[in-house]
Amino acid sequence: xxxxxxxxxxxxxxxxxxxxxxxxxxxxxxxxxxxxxxxxxxxxxxxxxxxxxxxxxxxxxxxxxxxxxxxxxxxxxxxxxxxxxxxxxxxxxxxxxxxxxxxxxxxxxxxxxxxxxxxxxxxxxxxxxxxxxxxxxxxxxxxxxxxxxxxxxxxxxxxxxxxxxxxxxxxxxxxxxxxxxxxxx
Length: 185
Fold this sequence. Notes:
Mean pLDDT: 76
Helix content: 25-40%
Structural class: alpha+beta
Largest sheet: 5 strands, antiparallel
Shape: elongated
Oligomer: single chain
């Protein structure tokens, strides 16, 4: 009986047992003081990212790092953001080739929102989202709320081509057309 319990805890004889995570109470439950292991896939991805990362006291290019941790979609977008002055490290505008170090504060302005992250781990290769969030501490304010208003100037399908009057009303709603009627008429 003791051998069966030991097999249940460790996964047993290759029967596909899930170990301790599937048990409810009893001798196989996880004590509150013992830390819960992370997902093995995430752990493997973290190990692969660390193996591909810089060794010793080396650094990583800023544009490469913000791309690798998924703050921007492409590395060239990261470089463009740096050149445009939308990225600051420790309060200073920097070039794309700036060497990022652990502990640096990176501020990235995107549309009308500023992301503020502190570098926790250096990586060179792009990784999955669960691994990427482990590479920085996010100190960003919450994103601005999206407007829940219906977009102005949407016509119903099948109503045909707008008349000149309809088009002017749509432009006025969208804010594209100022009241441009000539004075005196």
